[in-house]
Amino acid sequence: MEIRRLFLWVLVLMIMGRGEGQLAENFYSFSCPNVEPIVRQAVTTKLFQTFVTIPATLRLFFHDCFIEGCDASIMIASPNGDAEKDAPDNLSLAGDGFDTIIKAKQAVEGQCPGVVSCADILAMAARDVVFLAGGPLYNVELGRRDGLISQAGRVPGNLPEPTFDLNLLNWIFRKNNLTQTDMVALSGAHTIGFSHCNRFSKRLYSFSPSSPVDPSLDPSYAQQLMSSCPRDVDPTVAINMDPNTPRRFDNVYYQNLAAGKGLFTSDQVLFTEPASKPTVASFASNPANFAAAFVEAMRKLGRAGVKTGNQGEIRRDCAAFN
Ligand code: HEM
Ligand SMILES: *[C@@H]1O[C@H](CO)[C@@H](O)[C@H](O)[C@H]1NC(C)=O
Ligand SMILES: CC(=O)N[C@H]1CO[C@H](CO)[C@@H](O)[C@@H]1O
């Protein structure tokens, strides 16, 4: 009797465990064993065409995870222009990130049709671009399912703004189960990529009535930014976010913060606020500390709001629901 009850409980727990659908690094080891090299190859091919592949793919993953969870909802194209990717905050996402995922998915479908989610391909591609830019390599947990909701209206209030202070940054990352240390580490992604002038021009020309230039900006960096981004510059003009090593995924971002060269308020406050300054100092002086914290934070980011088991679907085309 006792043995039978025990057996039954084990069975129930096994079934529940399956339904819960945990992420696992070896999720596709039977169903699509070559998925990682296939994705890596597609990303590398795309990178050969344009460097923008790297920042665009990394930022795409971040935005995907913060809205509806990491479920490729950001990939959906809508004829009405009301999908997640059409929200004003996201319009500045470079098309090369979307293209990278579409190409990788096509390559994966060629070998394992209907098996690998777009959400997982985006998580793998984000890992690959970090490594290809000289950053740390890590294993990605897999088993995400693609979401069934993609609405522009779900974006406002779910993405951080460049004007955010430390409290707001912590609030929006905590909503995604990320700590302040995770937030500081993930902000290190701004070691690569571009920003349009309008995202920070207030810091150069109209910070406050008494001080048009943000006093937390290093004066020579402010001069440099003003010459690249004059007052009424064409809105398509974008500049490197890391003025020193814009194409390398390194810890120079944190050294820049210590020198007053954080591009956004949301970057600079990480150094000016006593609560996060020690973390910035640690990442600035020790690349291994940054690498370890970044990897941990990316893995945690990749768990935000994931659908697993039989939730959602495995999209055939990343830009459309099945
Ligand atoms: C901490 C809060 C954050 C804020 C306020 C923020 C804000 C921004 C803004 C305003 C831009 C410029 C977009 C443009 O003008 O085109 C940008 C670019 C970028 N962000 Fe963030 N971001 C944050 C965190 C992150 C995180 C966590 C990641 C990834 C892990 C990330 C990755 C990137 C990348 C790679 C770019 C460059 C995109 C490109 O060159 O196409 N950001 N971010
Ligand atoms: C955060 O963690 C809690 C507890 O594990 C979970 O219920 C919640 O869904 C998570 N939130 C996100 C956005 O992943
Ligand atoms: C919030 C934001 O980034 N908005 C931009 C979206 O993209 C358009 C066109 O590229 C810009 O004009 C907006 O400023």
From TrEMBL:
EC number: 1.11.1.7
Known cofactor(s): Ca(2+); heme b
UniProt source species: Cinnamomum micranthum f. kanehirae
Disulfide bond residue pairs: C32-C112, C65-C70, C118-C318, C197-C229
Main location: secreted
Top-rank taxon: Eukaryota
Binding site for Ca(2+) 1: D64, G69, D71, S73, E84
Site residues by UniProt (Transition state stabilizer): R59
Protein name: Peroxidase
Catalyzed reaction equations: 2 a phenolic donor + H2O2 = 2 a phenolic radical donor + 2 H2O
Keyword Heme: yes
Gene Ontology MF, one: heme binding
Binding site for Ca(2+) 2: T191, D242, T245, D250
Positions contributing to heme b binding: H190
Keyword terms: Calcium, Disulfide bond, Heme, Hydrogen peroxide, Iron, Metal-binding, Oxidoreductase, Peroxidase, Secreted, Signal
Gene Ontology annotations for the cellular component aspect, listed alphabetically: extracellular region
Domain Plant heme peroxidase family profile: 22-322
Family: Belongs to the peroxidase family. Ascorbate peroxidase subfamily. Belongs to the peroxidase family. Classical plant (class III) peroxidase subfamily.
Signal peptide: 1-21
Biological processes annotated in GO: hydrogen peroxide catabolic process; response to oxidative stress
Keyword Secreted: yes
Top EC class for this record: oxidoreductase
Catalytic residue positions: H63 (proton acceptor)
Binding note for cofactor: Binds 2 calcium ions per subunit. Binds 1 heme b (iron(II)-protoporphyrin IX) group per subunit.
Localization per record: Secreted
